[in-house]
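Posting here for the record, re: copper (II) ion.
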Amino acid sequence: MALALSGCNRRQSTFATFGEEAAAIDHLALVMTIGAVAVAIGVAALMIWAMRARPGALSLRGGERLILIAGGLLPVLLLLVLLGYSLPVMRPRAVAPADMRIDVTGEQFWWRVGYAPPGGNPVTTANEIRVPVGRTVLFRLRGADVIHSFWIPGLAGKMDMIPGRTNELVVRAVRPGLFRGQCTEFCGLSHALMAFDVVAMEPDAFERWLASQRQPAAATAPATAHVGAALFSRYGCGGCHTVRGTGQDGAIGPDLTHVGGRRTIAAGALPNGEEAIAHFIRYPARTKPGVRMPAFPHMSEADAHAIARYLGDLR
Amino acid sequence: MIDGLHQRIRALHVTLWTLIVPPATWASHFLFSYLWAAVHCAKTGHFADEPAVFWTGTGLAAIVIVASGWIALVQARKPGDHPPHNEGTEIDRLRFLAYATLLLAGLSVVGVAFTALPVLFIDNCR
Ligand SMILES: [Cu+2]
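Prediction output follows.
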């Protein structure tokens, strides 16, 4: 069954793991299921035996002994074994000061992401998380407005993001690939549309990617070549969004410095592309009900596309 | 000496209150464990290397439960009234309550042990 289920979805499944923590959970679930099935079969067998036994098949003493052993000692021993097996699995791996830290804040209905590499400058992005394969990563999880929950099923267990608290989750990816995470605590109208892409990369590629994310947009895209840049500024998008290197430094919405390099936009709600961005920026609530970005219905189709082309070039 | 103790124990007045001593101790230990871990982690930022306070509390809980279990065992073994009698007697009541207390004490010891295991196995604030 595990195979059949994981066949449905290899990108977001607790059965298709790419991290050590999720693999341990997967294994634990298997062991627990076998244990539960064994207990159920044992109890059912006893029950059938009890219903068929003729009266007096057990002496009073014998009956008491059966209850003591099958009803008391055996369950305690079995639970002890399962507990002794599961508790060490729940123990988080150790984190060294040199390990990568990634700060993720859940906001209605998107993810603010900050990489804090040891000894390097922090890097801010949004709605996409990349992790180096074979390295320990510490996620520091926070909630900005209401409680959200951070879950990358293939990587590790889920962890709540609670305003005013920092919860920590330690993971290690073991297999590169493209995966998906999802908010798993109902947080408002667009809760179901609050997802993110997860990319597990070889450490070298990860370092290169991180270095490119650290660059301001101006270094990668010739802002002057774009009418879109001017429109972005004119429509006041910079009041909420940052595009590093262009003087646009709003911090209310997602950092758009390298938005063109993401696979999806609006927290996994739409595939990235000129058409999708142009549509989203004019009528964001049509894609995400309750979204915290205002609509721009007066914006002309042409302006929307110019901005979308500009944003698409920010890689 | 043990005989004298047995006599004294059998003379104890048993009520429903004595019955809930083991599970109440278990519940208190449960609360204590959570509070201890939360306060310790919040104050020091890391898990205790030598959780002396925790093991003292756990030992105390175990002692209370085992003691009340032993008292219950002694009481449950008190000889019943001679027949014939048609209704429950004082001693029947005592023996019933004592036996129930004994079973609850057994359960509570297991409960306290299972509650304490994470400190041994997880010892982590994350
Ligand atoms: Cu959410």
